[in-house]
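Let us practice reading a record.
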Amino acid sequence: MRLRRSLLAVLASSVALTWLPAQPALATPIQGQTPWSVLLCKFADHAEEPKDPQYFKDLFTTEGLGKGGLADFIAEQSRGRASMAGSVVKGWFPMSVTAEQWKAQSPEARVKSCTNTANPVPANHRLAVMVNAPVELDAEVPLAETTAPVVLDPPLWDLATVTAHVLNRSGLSYPRSTFWRSPSEQRRTAPGQYDDEWDALSNPNVHAAPSARFGRGTVGLSGPHLDELGWLPGDRVVTLAKDGVTTQTVKLAPLERPDLPGTLLVRIPHASDPSRYYTVEFRKKTGQSAGIPNDTVLIHQYIGGRPYLTKKLSNYEPMQAIDADGVTVSIDSVGQEYATVTVSTDATTKCLEGYDYREAVAGDKVCVTPAAREQARIDNYDAPRWVDYETGGCLHVRRWRLITPDDHVCITPETEQQIIADNQAAPSRTNPARNVWGPNTCVEDYVWRQADASDYVCVTMETRLQILEDNAAAASRWTNGPYGPRTCVSGYVWREAFIGDQVCVTGDRRTQARQDNNLAHTRVHWPIGGTSED
């Protein structure tokens, strides 16, 4: 029943945006303030106010800091990079429709019945609507992952449900699981929806930590979701084989303990598809994840913008080893503070996209264009016609190909030059892992801003060079003043590219940083960093 209720809440919020107050678009990575307007609305035939507005202020806004609400969750999970600051709660507002009339309306009209009675929602706010009586909805409507408003009724005003819907409306997809018959077999059952109990988006199935104030508690986010949000420092994420090393033993710090040094997430590229990869993370039973059964290592697949927790088909527990898709993962140890894993991939032996093995002779693994591969096939097929059987050499101006010492296929001088060029270029055409950058891969002509190690906002190269210049000059622009030792000298202001960014820049560069933050989601390469259809 709880699962059904959670699904119904999503359905209630599946509304078009054309008629609503201006809504922010999907935004990953997320940093800075992410304000919400929470509207409390009463049906015409229900006068009760099941919760005081202060409950929702504590649940949604920074008034609830220290009380275990959503503001605490966002602050902890983002390592202070994101905040619910600016969020407001308004109501209770009386609607002109009864509960039954509201249920008969379209999803768009239901939300509008509430927004019509409230003050206008600020353009930069996301919207959540709380109705004051339980409402049954049609469960056959397809789910949607958009920035449509969150709509919840009284049975769903718990921390777990609110957190899942807010994160989904912020651009994260609902996670799934994939089942394995054994570590060495690739046979799987159909993916399970909401089946990663170690991820807050899997409400209502999460390993919930206790929440005395807000009903059902929640759990932390999985490594892939933290990565997608830009909440993992880039220097604490290892992408195997980017440097050509195919096997590595990695010491993992728990996601819940970023204060401990070391790697927080390992990406292991799929050998034949750079948009797919495995991830490995260590989870500790503490903080937001106090409800998990025990400290454990989790292995996910990241496919099409969605993480899939790998589970055993035999007992539905997380896989503790993988041997598939050219990838192996083995867990060496799980300790109080660290876990050690050994990972490998054969991605370095594969060709980059747009190239394939030449295969002119057996074992020829030089990566070439389709045209060069086809030329090798034609030359092999035509080999007999170009041999001078009296001299044992090649006819006309052709000469031996000699890819191997005994390769006596006759080729033209032009093909010989192409082979020489392909052989020289071979190292630059292998190892798809070199192009795996994770879920916030920038589109062409953009690069990560990197105002600090966790800044995945995509900007022009010119802007990035400005950032580096301003970072280098930071100390020269600080003075002791009303804002402490990092008060900006006259003519400069804090850049505020992210919370806590106190590099001093000119006013136009701070404006540029804000604009780039707002446009971040439009510059990410989809679907690698996108959401899925449901």
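A brief commentary: The longest strand covers residues 273-283.
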